[in-house]
Amino acid sequence: MTIRRPVRRLSAIFVALSITFTGVADAAPSAPGSTVTPENHRPRPNRVSGGWQWPVLPAPPPATRPDPKDTTTSPATTDAPLRTRTYPSAPGADPRRRTLVLYDTGGMYGWLGESYAVMAGNLVSHNSAWTMHPVRSYRAGEMSGYTSVIYIGSTPDEPLPKAFLDDVLKGGTPVAWMFDNIWRLAERSANFATRFGWRPGRVDTTEVTTVRYRDVDFTRDRAAIPSGIVRAGIEDADKARTVAEAVRSDGNRFPWIVRSKHLTYFGEVPFTYTGPDDRYLAAADVLARHADPTAPDRKRALVRIEDVGPDNDPAQLRAIADYLADRRVPFSVAVYPRYRDPHGVNNNGKPTDRTLVDAPKVVAALRYMQDKGGKLIMHGYTHQYRDTPNPHNGVSADDFEFYRVRVDDKGELHYVGPVPEDSRSWATSRLRAAKWEFWAAGFETPEIFEFPHYAGSAIDYTVVNDQFAARYDNGLYAAGWCHNGDCGSGTPDYSRIYGQSFPFLVRDVYGSVVIPESLGYVDLTQADDNRSRLPAQILATARRVAVVRDGVASFFYHPYLGTSRLGEVVDGIQEMGFTFASPADLNCCR
């Protein structure tokens, strides 16, 4: 997987890589007398901290309007038994809500359909349990057993069962339809435009880089332009309502989402080339409300103090705790319990290995943070991998722990795949070692886990789900892991991975309750590709998250930055009407 994007932009070209890595086992811990110099150690800014610089899903091929003379619209519904799996909703959702997610599987881009369905299902889990399977498997009357339906059209001329088209037209169950094959539905109805007040038109491939939703502008990556947006032509404004608008570079606008009666139509698949300020947030709100229009609307915020380990400066940790406590802002602290610098990058060439037990002043500072309202979460074991660069220097907090990544001579990140020894036993052993270090330092085992740099294999994610009440990160997913809608039954294809951030609490396909991190982090790095992310940019994203009902404005912050910029973000988020909460207040870990 190769990514070539400046920080905070999420666009990717999927490239299959076959690279073999070798490494050596973790070195034994250093003697108690070994030292770390916190003032010389700073978490290295890199393209993937915070999850925004992740691989994303590409767009499907342009939508294709069928030949009007084509009468082979769709096959008859099969009578074969349909086996489906229900994925539970996030805590607090209405248990009566159930959403059916249907997707395309045909053609060379067939793998995209299920990946899009996973993203849709993860989002609707905020308000609803859900099931997904290929649309080809749809059976007559099936949607009557659900409170909402989503169909994602990503393959031109996908064979759609006539029963599916007829059930959509029949009404009774709210249906959200995305992108392609909408013409099949219109052609199936003798009076579609008269009944719904709009008709599907041509595919618009003009430059649309903005989507306007609830009077707020969201970005749309230029990479999505060639795939186009199906224009919905509204003919009766009393029957059809524009929910969101596509805005051209010249200021002209046309419907991006249109709603009429029980049918909501998206002119494109909103899961492609996403970023922190993307139209994806608008789609997330529409889908969550589609799953449950009566769900509560709250404005909560979270702050996480990031990359805290035995190498941190205790005074900095205490200053952060004092500042947030004085403001009555609850917070969490992401802790890796073992610091490793196998090549002495930050210690004059002397290898360093230190645990929390070896850092009593850091332990005391962490207790102080707990007393001031901080909640400890586990941020991996060493936050690095063996004695080899992964991808930078092998130092804790700089490198990945559960996934192999490399950087080429152009500064491009390549997500290579799981570490060679990846297995349930390997992941379990690292979590067990981390838990032991917390226990040895006198702390209870954290209830929440955060993957270092938000990356792990499907195996790692399932192990974490088995051992923790929740994750606090963004998910990394691989095509192929879900087979015919049954996640975990397939084989992950790590050449086709994608990340997903969440603007609210969800329960994803790994089964984990996922506490959202929606804003990224303050990054003061100055580089020729403008990688810095200042408080103003964090707040700009927060203003877009505020549009999402029940959205959570969640960011993380490194303690070495001091408190002034932390205050800028906290003040700005509170001024938008958000109330800061502890992760446990999101109903995940009580």
TrEMBL record:
Record's signal peptide: 1-27
Region (Disordered): 26-96
Domain of life (superkingdom): Bacteria
Key words, A-Z: Signal
Biased composition (Low complexity): 71-81
InterPro entries per record: DUF2334 (IPR018763)
Name this polypeptide is given: DUF2334 domain-containing protein
